[in-house]
Amino acid sequence: MITVRNKLSDQLASCFGARGTIVPSGNNQVTLRVPVDDWLDVAQTLRDDEQFAFNQLIDLCGMDYLGYGQCEWETEDATQGGFSRGVEDLGPGRFDWESRPGSDDPKSVDIEERFGVVVHLLSTNHNRRLRLTTFAADEGLPVLPSLVEVWNSANWYEREAFDMFGIVFEGHPDLRRILTDYGFNGHPLRKDFPLVGNVTVRYDEDKGRVVYVPVEIEPRVLVPRVIRKDSRYQADDIDQAADDAADSLAPEVPQND
Fold it and tell me: CB–CB of 74/91 below 8 Å?
């Protein structure tokens, strides 16, 4: 398996050069990161070049790197209750619609390559897989070239990424929402979208139709219990280590027959 992975990595590096970067990843998975300007050309080559022959796109999904690398939970220091509390007030979705982070929020600006997509390809000829990634150039309006003309299975996947993340796929033949309602406001899988949503849908008997009303649920943080070796257990370990050291240094008492 490692030989196959190394062979594919060498082929990708030789073919694409600076147009593609091999990203280290585990599980014997080869990941190729491609600049957005070369997205279509690289995809076309991966499908048509016989040394690759990736004839099937088996998955495509969006990515949102807002808050990437920020720790939402304190996990090293224990509280008196023995478990941690959420320490970052702007964790994903933990706010209401009015107070959601916007373009003027310090945690929402200066984010390089916030939105992107990851694609999983399969070559039935060579019996191997490839993960392909790219990022949109503009965070405010993330636009990527559509892969529908290369792999037609990308059609509904790109519609889902558009619906959930707001990523616009230029050249898509029918780019519209696929999971939410046509009049839905926002994109639910963006990290600046409230977990409680922005409106509630219910049936109004007086109007005889479905209506949208403001959300009445307050956002809240659920606190998981985290078992760890905190100071209470460390003290026991120190006492036990001291006792063991004292026993090892104590002189042996001769036994009388």
Answer: no
Where would I find the H helices in the chain? Answer: 2-16, 39-48, 154-165, 231-249
| Residue 128 is assigned to a structural domain of this protein | yes
Higher pLDDT, 207 or 73: 207
> Considering the domain boundaries, does residue 90 fall inside one?
yes
d(CA 76, CA 95): 25
CATH code of the domain containing 199: 3.30.460.80
Q: Is residue 50 part of a domain?
A: yes
- How far apart are alpha carbons 36 and 169 in whole angstroms? 12
Nearest one of 197, 134, 214, 143 to 172, comparing CA atoms: 143
Note the pLDDT tens digit of each residue in 88-105.
444 566 666 666 665 555
- What is the domain extent for residue 47? 2-214
The predicted model gives 75-84 an average pLDDT of 50
Query: Which residue from 201, 197, 168, 171 is spatially nearest to 185, judged by alpha carbons?
Result: 197
Burial 80-110 (b: 16+ CB within 10 A, else e): eeebbeeeeebbbbbbbbeebbeeeeeebee
Structure tokens at 239: 């006492």
Closest CA to 30 of 14, 51, 8, 54: 8
**What pLDDT digit, counting tens, does each position of 200-231 carry?**
888 999 999 988 888 877 766 565 555 555 55
Count of domains observed in the chain: 1
pLDDT digits (tens, 9 = 90+) for 136-178: 998 889 999 999 999 999 999 999 999 999 999 999 999 999 9
Q: Report residue 204 as tokens.
A: 């109004």
Residue 70's CB is within 10 A of a number of other CB atoms, namely 11
207 within domain boundaries: yes
